[in-house]
TrEMBL record:
<dbReference type="Pfam" id="PF01593">
    <property type="entry name" value="Amino_oxidase"/>
</dbReference>
<dbReference type="InterPro" id="IPR036188">
    <property type="entry name" value="FAD/NAD-bd_sf"/>
</dbReference>
<dbReference type="GO" id="GO:0046592">
    <property type="term" value="F:polyamine oxidase activity"/>
</dbReference>
<protein>
    <recommendedName>
        <fullName>Amine oxidase domain-containing protein</fullName>
    </recommendedName>
</protein>
<dbReference type="InterPro" id="IPR002937">
    <property type="entry name" value="Amino_oxidase"/>
</dbReference>
<dbReference type="InterPro" id="IPR050281">
    <property type="entry name" value="Flavin_monoamine_oxidase"/>
</dbReference>
<feature type="domain" description="Amine oxidase">
    <location>
        <begin position="2"/>
        <end position="75"/>
    </location>
</feature>
Length: 93
């Protein structure tokens, strides 16, 4: 896929930044799976992106680190549920 963002008049770019009242906890909250990791319900929505990586917001490093973090989470969930989570293997765990 080829992009022409540099000539697209409607693309203005974007980046994340820490607001004055922002904390590292807010970044951790952004990266928390939904539903959370409490209880027996596996997460169905995972978040990655540099804004979810404390210490690396607005960087390519943060994007990579968060992607690896969530890939590892998917691997661990797949191992735990012996495949994609479903009602059969959720009852076994």
């Amino acid at each position: 896929m080829r992009s022409t963002w540099c000539t697209d008049p409607y693309f203005c770019g974007a980046f994340s930044y820490m607001g004055i009242s922002s904390t590292v906890g807010h970044q951790c909250d952004l990266g928390a799976p939904i539903p959370g990791e409490c209880g027996d319900v596996p997460p169905i929505l995972l978040f990655a992106g540099e804004a979810t990586c404390p210490g690396y917001h607005s960087t390519t490093h943060g994007a990579l680190i968060s992607g690896v973090r969530e890939a590892n989470r998917v691997i661990e969930l797949t191992k735990k549920y012996q495949g994609p989570p479903n009602s059969k293997n959720m009852e076994a765990n």
